[in-house]
Target: C-type lectin domain-containing protein
Amino acid sequence: MSSTIRKLVSLIVIWAYMHVQSAPSSTGKEYEIPNIKANWYKASEICNYFGMQLVTITSRDENDAVARFVQRSDKFSDVACSFWIGGNDLAEEGTFSWMPNGQLVRYANWTPGEPNNHNGTEHCMQIVYEPRREQRWTWNDNKCRTKYMYFICESKPRNCVEELRG
Ligand SMILES: [Ca+2]
Ligand SMILES: [Ca+2]
Model:
């Protein structure tokens, strides 16, 4: 990468960081929505850059907490909005796992008819709010590389060493 491009990328990331939405939640996680649309891979990179990870959702409570967080953010639209979340089925078609921790997706909140792997090209997970289509914080699989959208980062779980120190 040339130094000019590298500088530009740094500036974009810094700019995005200055515009993140942050709030503690009932799940004990902090969530953020950087002010930049990206494909799923870049979304994951940007969360990492901030010391966070793409959001993982393993219970109804967490799905509700994410929904509440988005609703308070300026990225929410009551008409339609959607965000990348941290799961995919890139390793094995039809088997979704949470990329940040490698765990299989057990609790799931798919929109009816999803995941449909449309055209055999959809492998990354998004959360969708589009009430006119009966989608209220339900999940869809979409195209990892070519779809650009906002995304939700969460704080990383604290590791054992930090737990002991705490
Ligand atoms: Ca797929
Ligand atoms: Ca789909």
